[in-house]
Write a structure and sequence with these properties.
It is a single chain. The chain is α+β, with helices and mostly antiparallel strands. The chain has one domain. It contains three helices and eleven strands; from the N terminus they run ααβββαββββββββ. The strands form three sheets. The chain has a four-stranded mixed beta sheet. It has a four-stranded antiparallel beta sheet with strand order 8-9-10-11. A hairpin with a 3-residue loop joins strand 1 and strand 2. The chain is elongated. The termini are far apart.
């Protein structure tokens, strides 16, 4: 004969659930800062790597042409490094096109855009045998490494903090550089947690401040 025995219910009590939630909150409090620190370090390291590649390209440019890529010292973020380092050809004296065909810019807007009279690393039609042909000193750029600020007008950019839509341009000054008077200044400003993180070629340390740098 079967007897009706009470069925024992299993599950967590309210106190047990609250304890688990509290433990998870404590663990999250420990993990979040570590995750954030790793992310910040990753961004900075990527910027350092990209800066090193740009420095190599710029120095190779100088070794071959005898001078550094020109740029307007008054607008370091809007510089012609994209075109100078990729090399260009001129068509009909009206258009510059990069050697890899990735971008073309009208010659009559180069000065107003970049503050220079034209691109020096350029193959021009009708050049004699003693005229140097343009050379590509930089290649393999990923979409995250350049930005088109106007049709055909591209600049080099670097990493940004996760979740931001900021475009961080590589800033460059070869005429009267403030920090490297014999070479050039190259830097990028990345906003992280409301602070400017400056990665630059005149300091091994990340310069952190509110953006009031020279």
């Amino acid at each position: 004969m079967k007897t009706n025995r009470p069925i024992k219910k299993t599950g967590f009590t309210l106190i047990e659930l609250l304890t688990v939630i509290a433990i998870m909150a404590i663990l999250a409090a420990f993990i979040m800062p570590i995750t954030r620190a790793v992310s910040v370090s990753k961004i900075r390291n990527r910027a350092r790597t990209e800066m090193s590649n740009l420095e190599t390209a710029i120095e190779t440019y100088k070794a071959k042409l005898g001078y550094y890529p020109p740029a307007d010292p008054n607008q370091p973020a809007s510089n012609p490094l994209y075109f100078e380092l990729l090399g260009t050809t001129m068509t009909n004296a009206t258009t510059y096109t990069t050697l890899d065909g990735s971008a073309s810019i009208a010659a009559n807007v180069v000065n107003s855009t970049f503050g220079v009279g034209g691109f020096l690393n350029c193959t021009r039609p009708g050049g004699g045998d003693d005229t140097l042909a343009a050379t590509a000193f930089l290649g393999g750029l990923k979409p995250a490494q350049y930005s088109e600020i106007a049709p055909g007008v591209r600049i080099l950019i670097g990493p940004a903090a996760p979740g931001t839509l900021t475009t961080n341009a590589w800033c460059y000054r070869s005429s009267s550089p403030a920090h490297n008077p014999k070479t050039f200044d190259l830097w990028i400003d990345i906003t992280i947690a409301g602070k400017i993180n400056r990665i630059c070629n005149w300091s091994d340390q990340v310069l952190i401040g509110n953006g009031t740098y020279p």
